[in-house]
Amino acid sequence: MPHHHHTNPSHPPAARKLLSWRRVVAACAAVAALVLLLAAAPATEDPSRWRSYLMGPLPGGTRKETVAAAVVARSFAGPAASTSSPAEAPLSSLGEINLSARIAPAAAPSMFLVPSSSPTENFDDGSMEEPEHPEIKRNLPKESAPFLKKEPISSGLPTISPDANGEHVMDTKSVLPLTPEQAPLWSTAADEELIYAKKEITNTPLTSDDPDLYAPLFRNVSIFKRSYELMERLLKVFIYHDGAKPIFHSPELKGIYASEGWFMRLMETNQNFVVRDPNRAHLFYLPYSSRQLEHNLYVPGSNSIEPLSIFVKNYIDLISAKYPYWNRTKGADHFFVACHDWGPYTTKLHDELRKNTIKALCNADLSEGIFIRGKDVSLPETFLRSPRRPLRDIGGRPAAQRTILAFFAGQMHGRVRPVLLKYWGDKDADMRIYSRLPHRITRKRNYVQHMKSSKYCICPMGYEVNSPRIVEAIYYECVPVIIADNFVLPFDAALNWSAFSVVVPESDVPKLKEILLAIPESRYITLQSNVKRVQKHFLWHPNPVKYDIFHMILHSVWFSRVNQIR
């Protein structure tokens, strides 16, 4: 039975007075923080919008709203309160006070001590796709400043692109340069190392003597090899410890968002690149999960991701007030990794995060004005069925035993897939296009077996430009046919996708079979062989190996940062 004593008899009178005094001080501090917050709030801001963050959900609110508020509270009151980053002393505690005042003080239910599993649906076609919310794009948070306009091309690292004859020619087009506001407030030894690396990469001689790198797969194998070597030798990454599970430090290793989870897990356990001293770092990793943001903060039926965007903005405000590192470059040496479709949109309330930070995104869509080619990184979307066996089912039939011309099975969302089904669904024996594999077919050959037996695997965009089928096709050694206008392909700065894939404009879907049949058999054999060669650059290993997907992602971020340095 619970006790209802007003005082604890075990405490002597002096101790009881001290406890009472501490309670009074704590209450006064809380009231003072609230007054400061309200005084600092913009006059145009609707106070009712913050009420749920200050006081928790109103009576009658949904359970999801209650849980969301609790998760927000836990995420900022977690490790940051007990285990600070090994950095300089906080500049001010005001940012932390303001942030905590805006969120609900309720304790999180125990179910959120461990990240919840994905509600991924297992369809008969063997594909794993989570239903998204396309209406979200009509209700995005209003940005606080116009999108970053494209800057004139300036001096950056050159690349080498294949010409029509397969020869390699110098491509002098470079990446987006630093804008004036991104110049560091002061220089560090890490900056000098980046400048050294940039000179070394720019002046690297042509080479093709690495048996582990197949030159036709790369835009410029010499530049890639030298840059990778310098990354292995020099790169140091600092990881912020602020933030609690499930949104921070909580990798999800299964499903279609596995890329961000696997990278987080391998980065946080890495001993080669991670440093405890932020003053030595070339890059700063923001270890939050876009998948967990959606899973824990999005209120079903609200059609709004504003709570997610506010959460991310407040997190950046916290670390920029607590530590000097964000402010030194205005976020240009910081990066995050997000595979959820909403990952780009959650940055829209923080100008520096959206404009300056290196964003590794599965949703690498140029048309949205958020992803910046040459600065941001296109993240491969990898669907993993078994976290304990990430290499399960890798491989496929030899080219001569692939009897199906083209295959696709999946949900009919987005603008491309319904058109694909309209023209090719169950209309041609060579074009195996389904909205869902019929049971009469799966009894003989399931989804994975279809991919392993097809020459070309059709990879149309869904709600967004990215698709897990691209990497799935590579896993099963099927040539990917990518249909997604404005999509920047993964590792675009390094890989020559024309060597192992086919890109078809959305407008050419009615001519899809004609396009595929026009590819000579010898060309197909080369493409399929190159798919097998490039496969190792997209594989996850519990213990990362050289040139695997973990290192390719990290190299892409490193290469972007080197490009930005003056």
TrEMBL record:
It is found in: Golgi apparatus membrane. Residues 232-516 form the Exostosin GT47 domain. GO terms for molecular function: glycosyltransferase activity. InterPro entries: Exostosin (IPR004263), Exostosin_GT47 (IPR040911). Residues 115-135 are annotated as: Disordered. Keywords: Glycosyltransferase, Golgi apparatus, Signal-anchor, Transferase, Transmembrane. GO terms for cellular component: Golgi membrane. It is a single-pass type II membrane protein. Pfam families: Exostosin_GT47 (PF03016). Belongs to the glycosyltransferase 47 family. This is Exostosin GT47 domain-containing protein. It comes from Sorghum bicolor.
